Amino acid sequence: xxxxxxxxxxxxxxxxxxxxxxxxASTGANVVVTGKSVEPHPKLEGTIFTSAQEMKDAGGDGLxxxxxxxxxxxxxSALEQxxxxxxxxxxxxxxxxxxxxxxxxHLEMKRFDLMHQVNVRGTxxxxxxxxxxxxxxxxPHILNLSPPLNFEPKWFGPHLGYSIAKYGxxxxxLGLAEELKPLGIGVNALWPKTVIATAAVRNLLGGxxxxxxxxxxxxxxxxxxxxxxxQSKKTSGNYFIDEEVLRxxxxxxxxxxxxxxxxxxxxxxxx
Length: 271
Fold this sequence. Notes:
Mean pLDDT: 94
Radius of gyration: 17 Å
CATH superfamily: NAD(P)-binding Rossmann-like Domain
């Protein structure tokens, strides 16, 4: 289905970004793996190069490009390099994200700045510079890994800095879906119903005990595959939840996605 389609993913060396790439590569997609992980990390598995090779092993093609999503020149260069290499860009997935759940008194401003530079500015900027390529594609999509807009105080009080940064990504969906409608570019958000077992969960959000009550990144990848398969002109401005997308497609048993079978799952933020 995605044979010869080119997918540009921010933060795709591991976790959800990599899982989405592998799912699309399995049907022949060209996956552009971007990120800062150019050297092996003692606590984090994989680099952009190992991930790109896995895209090839999965049946597609992979191109690794070192890119800091905060740097304008690097983002422009990466998009241009990807388009030149594969002959265009069909899909942009804004997956790169920084997280810090500190409350306001304890959140250092450099951490606040990082979250906003990566999450909001990075998403806005990568989308902005991808538009010239996407508008030439047959079925162009932008997919942000961000939550539905939900302005309940309980999602802002405990970690205001992070919440603003993630909702900033979701506001990009709201605005770009409307702005890019005349170009036929579909812009949507996707968010997991439960916690997903990623490096961030293991290292920052509770470790193995939380992981045991999580789902694998595969559920998000399968939902992304479904969304990106749809007609972009008719699929835009939506805030999709992974389980709901798959339930609509006919899946009823989600146990295959559990990190540990039988454990009670933890709901994700913002839902």
